[in-house]
Design goal:
Elements lengths: L1 H41 L2 E4 L4 E3 L4 E5 L6 E2 L10 E6 L3 E6 L6 E3 L2 E3 L1 E4 L3 E5 L2 E7 L5
Parallel strand pairs: 3-4
Antiparallel strand pairs: 1-2, 1-11, 3-5, 5-6, 6-9, 7-8, 7-10, 10-11
Length: about 140
Amino acid sequence: MDSAKLLLCAISAAAIDICAMALMLTSYREKSSGKKRWSKLAADMELADQSAVYPLECDEILIGRHASADIRLPDMSVSRYHAMLNVVEGGKWTITDMGSKSGVYVNGTLTKHKRLRENDVITIGNRRLLFRKRRSKR
């Protein structure tokens, strides 16, 4: 009788392990396909300056000096909530000035709202950021 209970416990444990493995595999596949969908939607873009690269990994990105900004630029020439990047369908990104003191410049032109194109230079305060295709896949 004890050996039957032990065998039943072993079978139950094996079934639980198989279910857990199936869930992990499904989760991995979903994450991978989600990254592919996002990559297509966001067109694998990033912002880069001389000292850092900022991958654009969500559909709304706040740029500013404040600690809560998604892209934090700790420079007094940058407003706390300076600009917002948004992705719209087809990998098209826009930038919007959030009422900053020094403005947002795209390729040297002051703008309130602008659609971005690859290799645009965005000036926020004293910082110059290049809007480009992501250099390395993560």
